[in-house]
Amino acid sequence: MNRIIFRADANSQIGLGHVMRCLALANMLGPSVDRYMAIIEPDPAVQSMLEQAGVRVIALTAATADTDLLTFLNEQDQVVLDGYSFDSAYQQTIKARVKRLYFIDDLVDGHQTADVIINHAGNVTPTDYTADPDTTFCLGPLYALLRPPFLNPEGFGPTPVDGPYFVSLGGADPANYSLTVVQAIRELDPKQAIRLVLGPLYAHRASIDTLQATLPNLTVLQNLDAGQMAAELRQCSLAITACSTIAYEVCAVNRPLIGILTADNQDRIARFLSDEKLALSVHFPQLLSRMDPSISLKTMLKLAIQSMQFTPEQIEKSLANQRRYFDGRSPDRFRALFH
What we know:
The chain is of the alpha/beta class.
């Protein structure tokens, strides 16, 4: 291999998910290859996170991003795209310039021309896609895009009985589900310890600080690295997260999970977590509001947490299902693929 160039963006509107998936893959491939992230006007916290992981940042401007990226590429490069603006025509343009093109996908929409499609959502098959006939598919949790601290084939030990609740609703959380979840826990049990992890693009900190003044057992953390996140999950008795890669990280650490669909692109992972019983419950706020506006997400979360506390058999079944799908060997599969 020569160079691997990742192309993704992150901001307060689209969140951090695309960049985090690329960063997980960059970590799996390791420092033996030159890894670059081409990103439009990166937030300083995002740029620092990438650089600390050994990924060189190519800061693009919005007006000339496509041209600047094409100028940087050479025919020996391998390129990884992750984003919703990289349609078939864009893929074809990049593919013609480089050795191999990969596309990290979660929508299963439109025609794909990339050499390799990576989609770690469960219950997705090649027949769900419209793609070029020579496309290679890497699908499902065996290709989970997890950062190194979450990759431990030997396991992470039993769930602490009286551990805190871990809450993380994404890098941006524009709908401020973080506040709703913490309020639900407080109304159930004001003494319950909560570890709330906020992302670098979270814009509602004032609402959390106001709540924290009335909730002494709430600890607010922000901008944690992968090792710190894994350590938080290991000590928790329950995790409440978005149905994004963070939910897979919970499954990999093997902890009880309640999932919340916080963006439409999480739908396939959310339904996989629900259908295969990897999560104790999965909540679809927009669907809930259409079905019965009188029932709030807060109410449903309270019911889910209460039922979780009294059904140890349900918890053990969920944890067993998690172990079935996450074996900690994603890096081996990706290194073989890229080499």
